[in-house]
Amino acid sequence: MNDCSYVHTFTYGDDSLAEIHPEHAHIIEQTKANMPSDEILEKTAEVFKVFGDKTRIRILAALSEGEMCVCCLCDLLEMSQSAVSHQLSVLKAARLIKSRREGKQMYYSLDDAHIGAILCTGISHVEED
Amino acid sequence: MNDCSYVHTFTYGDDSLAEIHPEHAHIIEQTKANMPSDEILEKTAEVFKVFGDKTRIRILAALSEGEMCVCCLCDLLEMSQSAVSHQLSVLKAARLIKSRREGKQMYYSLDDAHIGAILCTGISHVEED
DNA sequence: AAAATATATGAACGATTGTTCATATGTTCA
DNA sequence: TGAACATATGAACAATCGTTCATATATTTT
Prior knowledge:
The structure is a homodimer.
Chain A: H1 15-18, H2 22-34, H3 38-51, H4 54-63, E1 68-69, H5 70-77, H6 81-93, E2 97-102, E3 105-110, H7 113-127
Antiparallel strand pairs in A: 1-3, 2-3
Chain A binds a DNA duplex (30 and 30 nucleotides) through helix 6.
């Protein structure tokens, strides 16, 4: 068991507890107050989950060069049309990409400037080793 | 089947193919040339995969306010010590956080400025709705 | 209208993941 | 040294995920 979790009960009358980590309670309360809501954090995790797959990252990296149709992506990634299309629908549902139709073809592109920025920072983090 | 993937064979003698999407081949080749290597993209996906979990995002959000010990995180997140510790080890293995020991306690903090930036941009993307 | 083309989608299956439970390791204090 | 405390870790199990295969939908062409 871990008594540290009871520090925030503010038992200042009891020296044996109060003296150990009197500042932890403040840190916990303050951090809790400054953090985004659980709902926001959950949605953020869902967004990153979509970034967290090699196929989808490759698609995003390709689209960051400009819009592209499904068949080009299949060719570029050397993957089946079905696999690519499934991942495109995941990316679209998460609003990381958007689409437009031109005749028989669908053209996909990054939804938003944030997407390129997140991708770019992630790549920079990996490259700096 | 999807003939679009054969456009880049440059069959300019065959009008029926060459006229459909003569520019696709260039787009594919140029995109391929500009994209980061598959190895970089795979590593990038692995990094985002680590961001893609609610518990880990909550830990990162907490640590972006400053370093914190394991017991404080357990209290803050209202989760078991084991669950938190397991996720801390995942975050550490991916070098998203670093640790230092002070007596019996381990203090964790964000590893790098990129981590806070990625988290922050992700949250911004979610909040702008 | 029928055939061809481009893309989307449901079912299924193996692979990966996050938690819990039990226990091990490392540090301090008496 | 032994007890208490703080954290780490292995095994296991349910749940989630990404691909393949088969098929459906939408658009254009003949």
